[in-house]
Write a structure and sequence with these properties.
Length: 453
């Protein structure tokens, strides 16, 4: 993938519809009556289902290019880019919320729906050109649902501008810059883990320019517990007992919880938020805002987590347990045969990326919705089950526990990750996605979820 790949010029709306004439019954321009008169009789098309649909297409496109179980924070980055462009395309027309790093408002007579689908299509095409055929087909179908006329044309043009703005903002942001990990194996220092011992994956995420924060290390937490400390011993012994693949102390429910969060958290969140927005009948602006706030804060939580991983380079539980006879801690004991329930991701331990993303996303979403009672139906892509989370605090607790019970994180790394994510969220809420009118305040601090201790 290349940042500066050439973008195809926008096909005319009528040309696009002509491509899909066989897919839907669409009136041919010039035979459907005067479009100017139609435009004056109805509001510009603004169906929020279009935003949800293109969020699903974004997930599908990312998966097609990275793989279904890609164990990296890249997924959050791409969702952040697309969601930011769609948000600007919609609120720049409807005017209810502050634009994201842009000041070019669109015409109030433009179609927010046409702007949204155009922005999503154009950003995805810029970063995933190999998916052009499918993206173009979906785009044509989306435009075919929107009445022809000036509102559609204006929306398409403004959506292009919104997408191009995000693409320009992200030029030279450090994506894919090679980061060489050169730390020599030593007690406490990360090294590739079994069974495949893959190299450090996507280390560049720790140096990429954030979307919302001023710097990737802005909310870097203090360091992990010292290897000789009692807290470190508690962490090691807990994951050794509770996170083992065989012979663990887990209950069946604890095992199911570990497996439930064993896939890509960003995919779980997208599905849950699409369901929430549909059930709660959010309008197009509120739907776009929900995804943008969640996904840009998730992307910056990833940057924050990967910055910490690069900086502290702490070894994973499987290495710590195998090498416990080298940690200078009398309360730990080596077990070279120990294996975790889940396969250990190929990057350092501290802080937990899953916990950081969950802490950031749930707190940000609670802020934009004004409540920590989130009413989320969350589906696991790993084991194909669904859980209902009424409150964000319960989700955070399960997330922290799950990474310990899966054998891939120490509790200290999970809690530090969640807290770092909370700080990302507070920054996002203080600086972005704000209502234009004072009569629509974000949620108060007392209503926001907190991390388990």
């Amino acid at each position: 993938m290349r940042l500066n790949c050439p973008l195809p010029s926008r096909p005319g709306v009528r040309a696009v519809i002509g491509v899909v004439a066989s897919l839907a019954l669409v009136a041919v321009p010039g035979t459907a009556g005067p479009t100017a008169a139609a435009d004056s009789r109805q509001a510009p098309s603004a169906n929020p289902a279009a935003v949800r649909h293109w969020n699903a297409i974004t997930t599908q496109t990312i998966t097609a290019n990275l793989g279904a179980m890609h164990p990296s924070g890249q997924v959050a980055v791409w969702h952040g880019f697309v969601s930011a462009a769609v948000y600007n395309a919609v609120v720049g027309i409807q005017g209810r919320y502050a634009l994201y790093k842009w000041n070019a408002r669109g015409s109030s007579t433009a179609s927010p729906e046409a702007a949204a689908v155009t922005a999503a299509h154009r950003v995805l095409l810029a970063y995933f050109p190999a998916s052009q055929s499918r993206l173009d087909t979906e785009y044509a179908k989306s435009l075919a649902k929107i009445p022809d006329g000036r509102a559609e044309d204006q929306g398409v043009a403004y959506g292009e501008r919104a997408a191009d703005r995000i693409i320009r903002l992200r030029e030279g942001d450090g994506r894919f810059e090679p980061i060489e990990y050169t730390a020599s194996p030593a007690p406490g220092v990360w090294r590739p883990t079994p069974p495949a011992h893959p190299p450090y994956l996507d280390a560049w995420l720790g140096t990429m320019r954030p979307l919302l924060l001023e710097a990737g290390d802005q909310f870097r937490p203090g360091g992990p517990p010292a290897l000789s400390s009692a807290r470190y011993a508690r962490d090691v012994n807990e994951v050794k007992a509770m996170g083992a693949k065989t012979g663990s102390s887990r209950t069946a429910h604890q095992t199911e919880t570990a497996l439930f969060f064993g896939g890509n958290l960003m995919v779980q969140f997208q599905t849950a938020f699409r369901d929430y927005a549909a059930r709660h009948r959010l309008g197009i602006a509120d739907t776009a805002r929900l995804f943008a706030a969640a996904n840009t804060s998730a992307a910056d939580a990833v940057v924050t987590a990967w910055d910490s991983k690069l900086h502290y380079a702490l070894w994973r539980p499987v290495t710590a347990i195998h090498q416990a006879d080298t940690d200078d801690n009398p309360e730990t004991e080596a077990d070279p045969q120990w294996q975790p329930l889940l396969v250990t991701p190929p990057h350092p331990e501290y802080i937990s990326g899953h916990a950081a993303v969950a802490g950031a996303v749930l707190r940000t979403v609670a802020g934009v919705l004004g409540t920590s009672r989130l009413d989320l139906n969350v589906r696991s892509e790993a084991i194909a089950t669904t859980r209902h989370y009424e409150h964000a605090d319960r989700f955070n607790k399960d997330m922290v526990d799950a990474r310990v019970w899966g054998g891939i994180h120490f509790r200290s790394a999970d809690i530090a990750g969640c807290e770092a994510g909370n700080r990302v969220a507070d920054w996002a809420l203080a600086h972005y996605f704000k209502p234009v009118r004072r009569s629509m305040p974000p949620g108060s601090q007392s209503s926001l979820p907190k991390c388990p201790r």
